Amino acid sequence: MYRLEEIKRAAQGMWSLIAGLNITGKYFLQPNVTIHYPRQEVDNLATFRGHIELIPEDGDPLTPRCISCGTCAKACPSGCITVTKQKAPAPTPEEVEQGIKPKAPKDPETFRLDFTLCSLCGQCVMSCPADAIKFSQNINIAGYSRQDFYFDLVARLRSRLPKHINKAE
Ligand code: SF4
Ligand code: SF4
């Protein structure tokens, strides 16, 4: 009886080994789906989800397409987005005379993302009525503290531009 148990267990072990080797053999002959990072670079990041970033207006890389509606902040289940609207500029003497009140620009003053809370769920991207945010392809993100992952995406959009067209500098 004892011997029969041992034979059964040995047969199960052998079967498990054969099943494992079968999978190894199958994938051994197929092309690699991984790369030797960082010696090799990923050449297709189309489906990669990095932290979100703002998309600029067509033809104006300094101005985010965002209209400060706050829909993304409401849709975010983790509460990681805070959008601050711009204030209207002070009226010029002519405008005061004509009773015109200047309107605030639509694009946000700040667009803060707490990436430490983000689950990359995509609710913000899907809910945006202006198609103003997308996932970045930033794969080399690292930091020394939580604060390194608190982003102002407006400042980030402008800082990523070539210096000769960056008004903020
Ligand atoms: S991807 Fe999801 S968790 Fe991250 S900011 Fe957007 S809505 Fe929030
Ligand atoms: S990113 Fe889109 S949803 Fe979020 S505040 Fe701007 S326009 Fe609204």
Report how far apart the termini are.
84 Å
- Report mean pLDDT, rounded to a whole number: 91
Strand content: 5-15%
How many beta strands in the DSSP annotation? 7
Low-confidence stretches: none
Largest sheet: 3 strands, antiparallel
Category from helices, strands and their pairing: alpha+beta
Can you walk me through this structure?
This protein has helices at residues 2-28, 71-75, 93-98, 123-127, 153-159; strands at 52-54, 56-57, 60-64, 81-84, 110-114, 133-135, 150-152. The chain is an alpha+beta fold. The protein has a domain at 52-165. Strands 4-5-7 form a three-stranded antiparallel β-sheet. Strand 2 (56-57) and strand 3 (60-64) form a beta hairpin. The mean pLDDT is 91. It binds iron/sulfur cluster (SF4) (2 copies).
State the gist of this model.
This protein has helices spanning 2-28, 71-75, 93-98, 123-127, 153-159; strands spanning 52-54, 56-57, 60-64, 81-84, 110-114, 133-135, 150-152. It has 169 residues and is α+β, with helices and mostly antiparallel strands.
Descriptive labels:
30% helix, three-stranded antiparallel beta sheet, two-stranded antiparallel sheet, 5 helices, 7 strands, 15% strand, single chain, binds iron/sulfur cluster, alpha+beta, 169 residues
Give the secondary structure arrangement, pairings included.
Blueprint: H1 2-28, E1 52-54, E2 56-57, E3 60-64, H2 71-75, E4 81-84, H3 93-98, E5 110-114, H4 123-127, E6 133-135, E7 150-152, H5 153-159
Bound molecules: iron/sulfur cluster (SF4) (2 copies).
